[in-house]
Design goal:
This protein has three helices and 14 strands. By secondary structure, the chain is mainly beta.
């Protein structure tokens, strides 16, 4: 299991913004770059691991890990993003619009990125909040290509408490505004997606040792 080293536990104050499916138009990193949307259907980019994290205040998160095979891309990676709607905003509200939330590189692991998404919590000020985050993942290259990761048949993923329940990899951490999660530990070819493997990784992509090591 890999887990990001830090996360923010402030439900309703986690500034996660964003989501849309393959081919959804948007602006690129550079104004003079033409954006081309294409499906990462040959394991160029894929979700290789996922985990459920619950803190002692019963806030529940889904952690997604995306692996990139740079040998199959048309340029260096500039962005890895979740493009979604339904992410939490301040005061118990959710974002009804599609927007982007970046993944962050996993320390010490080449070509691996992670994101943590709040899916349930009982905020003392606003009461219980069950979130349904709907969207897709993409990696953008310097060539202006956005390589989209979608469920089988296209469309968007639904990240919610139901998905959290499908994941076999669960960690309980101490509750704090800014906490430290256990260090990640995984073998390169291991996929940890629980009962959601066919949904999150429909092509059954696997990480090779050479790519994981950046060789």
């Amino acid at each position: 299991m890999r887990l990001p080293r830090t996360f923010c536990c402030l439900l309703g104050a986690i500034a996660l913004a964003g989501c849309g499916g393959r081919g959804e138009a948007g602006s690129g990193s550079a104004a003079d770059t033409t954006i081309v949307d294409t499906a990462a259907n040959s394991c160029q980019v894929f979700i290789d691991e996922a985990a459920t994290v619950t803190d002692q205040a019963s806030f529940t998160y889904v952690v997604l890990y995306v692996h990139i095979d740079p040998t199959q891309l048309d340029g260096a990676v500039t962005d890895v993003d979740l493009y979604a709607k339904g992410l939490p905003l301040d005061e118990g509200a959710v974002n009804a619009n599609f927007a982007t939330q970046p993944f962050t590189p996993v320390p010490g692991v080449a070509n691996e990125y992670s994101i943590i998404v709040n899916v349930w919590g009982d905020n003392p000020d606003f009461g219980p909040l069950s979130l349904e985050v709907v969207g897709a993942v993409y990696a953008q290259t310097t060539a202006g290509t956005r390589w989209w990761v979608n469920p089988s048949g296209g469309g968007n993923f639904t990240i919610d408490s139901n998905l959290a329940g499908e994941l076999s990899d669960t960690t309980i951490v101490s509750s704090s505004s800014f906490g430290t999660l256990p260090p990640y530990a995984s073998t390169p070819s291991t996929t940890s997606l629980g009962g959601a493997g066919a949904y999150l990784n429909p092509s059954a992509c696997a990480v090779s040792t050479s790519v994981m090591a950046g060789q």
